[in-house]
Write a structure and sequence with these properties.
Blueprint lengths: L2 H13 L2 H8 L3 H15 L4 E4 L2 E4 L1 H24 L7 E8 L3 H15 L3 E8 L1 H9 L5 E4 L8 E15 L12 E4 L3 H10 L9 E2 L2 H11 L2 E5 H9 L4 E2 L6 E10 H4 L5 H16 L1
Parallel strand pairs: 3-4, 3-5, 7-8, 7-9
Antiparallel strand pairs: 1-2, 5-11, 6-9, 6-10, 6-11
Length: 285
């Protein structure tokens, strides 16, 4: 299968236009058409509805899109690992859910750059479904996540528990979910705990499913919300945010999922994970 045809297909899907895809790829529109025709002939299915208004996926194209993404990603990873500069020890590919960059992915990166600078490192942030897919297709060697998938050849372990605390931009805020309360969605278990702690209360007119975005909102607009202590400890120390007293805190477990055969070959690995765990606990404490 032609890799350029896959890239062309993905560009057309993203732009919904053969003309726009040809501009991005710096080829003629006839070249884009020829590549798509060759790909559809090889697959044996029509992948795109093409017309004057643009291009839309067929049902077969919708199914094929994720495979095209995986194949191009695998090629990039293979080229990256095989073409490492001389003297590098190897490569480590890490996936992590977005909220786990701060003091987890960040600390892992800092530790390797400081102690193992000849290990090439790639970090891929994504939603839970993306991280699961990357693990199962072998695009990443390990992942920091909130709910470990069951993937063959991978093991999981608990790193720590995130403490979710209610913080407010107002000092000595009352122990209620007021008008400025932001519902920060931390997943299924948090939803259950939150509903049990605040039965019958209307939670918020605003829901944000990202701790970083929620912090930005509170800093710009004021209000309150449940956030990981490690996210807000520095802001609390500086008096920008304040813990609300008299309300429950919640827990959200953080897992490490690792390709057992791969990480077993890395002499530096456990020290890097220990550094992540120690940093997280220092933020929690």
């Amino acid at each position: 299968m032609n890799l350029e045809a896959l890239r062309t297909f993905l560009q057309v899907v993203e732009t919904r236009s053969l003309v726009a895809a040809s501009r991005r790829l710096h080829v003629t529109q006839s070249t884009v058409t020829a590549r798509l025709n060759a790909l559809e002939k090889e697959i044996g299915q029509k992948l795109l509805h093409r017309g004057k208004a643009g291009a839309e996926l067929t049902s077969a194209g919708f199914k094929f899109e994720r495979y095209a993404q995986v194949m191009t990603q695998l090629w990039r990873q293979a080229r990256y690992e095989v073409s490492l500069p001389e003297g590098f020890e190897g490569a480590c590919n890490v996936g992590l859910e977005f909220d786990l960059w701060r003091s987890v992915g960040q600390r892992f990166l800092d530790h390797l750059r400081r102690h193992r600078p000849k290990v090439a490192l790639a970090l891929w942030p994504g939603e839970r479904r993306q991280v699961d897919r990357w693990l199962k297709t072998g695009l990443i060697d390990l992942a920091f996540c909130y709910l470990p998938p069951s993937a063959e050849g991978f093991a999981s372990r608990v790193l720590f528990d995130d403490e979710l605390i209610l913080v407010s931009s107002t000092r000595r805020a009352p122990a209620v979910l007021g008008a400025g309360y932001v519902y920060v969605d931390h997943g299924d278990e948090f939803r259950r705990q939150h509903a049990a702690a605040f039965p019958g209360e209307q939670t918020s007119a605003l829901t944000i499913a990202s701790s970083d975005w929620a912090v930005d909102h509170l800093m710009s607009n004021g209000g309150s919300g449940y956030l990981p202590r490690r996210h807000v400890s520095e802001l609390m120390r500086r008096g920008r945010l304040h813990a609300v007293k008299g309300v429950p805190s919640f827990k959200r477990r953080v897992y490490l999922v690792e390709a057992t055969q791969t990480v077993a070959r890395w002499a530096w690995y456990e020290a890097a994970i220990d550094a992540v765990t120690a940093a997280a606990y220092s933020k929690i404490g």
